[in-house]
Design a protein that fits this description.
Layout (H helix, E strand, L loop, with lengths): L2 H30 L5 H15 L14 H16 L8 H14 L6 H14 L4 H5 L3 H22 L4 H32 L4 H10 L3 H8 L5 H10 L7 H14 L6 H20 L8 H22 L11
């Protein structure tokens, strides 16, 4: 496969995963504006921006004991994360970049995938925050997340299982791992800044990761932060757990075959295995898990660079001679 096609499919997976992640978090955040305490709303925004490593408009979040202020501030923050064209991580921009990458590789994806993605883009491309805020912003986020999940399902059902399929999945899994680690670190940092976090804060984290029902099934309804982290990081049966995502990532890398840059490809496979081993064998039972999560986040960023060097941005002399 041409490196530019591999790059487009890889980033198609990453951008749509990022957009879906933001939709889930923003849906819960705007729902919280109805009846949740101001401190919880403030923590939610802080966690969202910290998870994206982005500064909010104005440079920092202000906590104010005014409902009117909180609503106006939330309107600005939601607009920044949803439609702001100068924000590369906004939902609109992720959708636009994902669609552009798909357009460049229409010969690699199915017609059904392109139709699904294009229809979703046409629905949101002309919208702005005013259009969704005066009606039902949570419905917009829920519908957009459903459209991305529909695209993923259509891809599962119709895309040819060649190298292109694997590059798109590699992008999805690397993005998902990085976003989950960043979200967990943001949750821990928010708790440290406030002195403690409530059960409601950890419940909202579970809901944002679509893991609340799984938590109740495994641990009952009592919320314990250590148990929440154990579920989201180490549970091999939870579809979105870090353990399961890293296992899938390692499997895709192993099945990708020889890379043009053999050294970088081998290093990527070793690092993926190391990441799986960190979660399986070095996750502490109690105490400080933050150090290991930081290490996993650094490894994920390094893995992205190795995948890029192995399959996309390799030097000509690295390519095998046929």
């Amino acid at each position: 496969m041409l490196s530019r096609s591999a790059q487009s499919l890889y980033w198609l997976g990453r951008y749509l995963e990022r957009a879906e992640h933001l939709c889930r978090l923003l849906q819960l955040q705007v729902e919280a504006l109805v009846d949740r305490p101001l401190s919880e709303i403030h923590l939610g925004w802080s966690r969202l921006y910290a998870g994206l490593s982005r500064q909010p408009p104005g440079g920092k979040l202000e906590s104010d004991e005014s409902d009117d202020y909180t609503l106006a501030d939330s309107y600005t923050l939601a607009g920044d994360l949803t439609f702001e064209r100068d924000n590369p991580d906004s939902i609109r921009n992720c959708f636009a970049l994902g669609r552009e990458n798909a357009r460049q590789v229409r010969h690699c994806i199915s017609a059904e995938m392109w139709t699904c993605l294009n229809l979703a883009w046409l629905r949101i491309c002309e919208l702005d925050i005013e259009d969704i805020w005066k009606v039902s912003p949570e419905s917009f986020y829920a519908e957009t997340a459903r459209e991305i999940n529909t695209f993923t399902g259509v891809a599962e059902a119709t895309m040819y299982r060649d190298e292109g399929w694997r590059f798109m999945r590699l992008g999805r899994f690397i993005e998902r791992a990085q976003l989950l680690v960043a979200l967990l670190l943001a949750q821990l940092a928010a708790g440290r800044a406030q002195g403690e976090t409530s059960d409601t804060d950890w419940t909202s984290l579970l809901r944002s990761c679509q893991a609340f029902d799984a938590y109740k099934r495994s641990y009952s309804v009592e919320i314990q932060p250590d148990q929440v982290l154990d579920l989201l990081v180490t549970d091999p049966l939870l579809p979105g757990s870090l353990c399961r995502v890293l296992d899938a990532l390692a499997s895709e890398l192993a099945a990708s075959g020889a890379s043009p840059n053999a050294r970088a490809g081998a290093a990527a496979e070793r690092l993926a295995g190391r990441l799986c081993a960190l979660i399986r064998y070095e996750w502490p039972d109690r105490g400080d898990r933050e150090v290991l999560l930081v290490q996993v986040g650094e490894h994920c960023r390094k893995l992205h660079k190795l995948v890029t060097a192995a399959y996309i941005a390799y030097a000509i002399e690295d390519s095998p001679v046929h």
